User: What shape does this take?
Amino acid sequence: MCPPVQAQLAPLPIFENVTIRPNFSPDPIIVQGISGGSVPGKKIAGRAETANGPCVGFVDEKPNHTLVLKAFFNYLSLQVQSPKDTTIIVRGPGGIWCNDDFKGKNPGIAGQWLPGTYSIWVGSYDQTKYHPYVLRITERR
Assistant: This one.
């Protein structure tokens, strides 16, 4: 009898960057990371609030992800999914957007997007807490 084979699963990468065009596949694209940092979200955003919500929580100085849009998107949604309460800040060609409660306690930003490069930060409410998350990028409403 042969000894049992133990599969070695490679850990999934975190903090991936994404480059897409309209009608990308697969949809949704899922990337993951760890929220949090020592910098107040309002410092990164340069304001306390945007039309999408307050710029709260704590993030790293550098963004968690970079999203490059190769063309205009009539609709695109970024949604964070985490077991803990997180925040999001997105800075790009059209401005800066913050959110903390898009669907329940999870943040997100959705709407029309200009082509260009977007920096994305995912934050934690407590400066000393870091939480795993997935970021779901989709054109589906």
Q: What stands out?
A: The longest strand covers residues 73-81. The chain has one domain: 33-138.
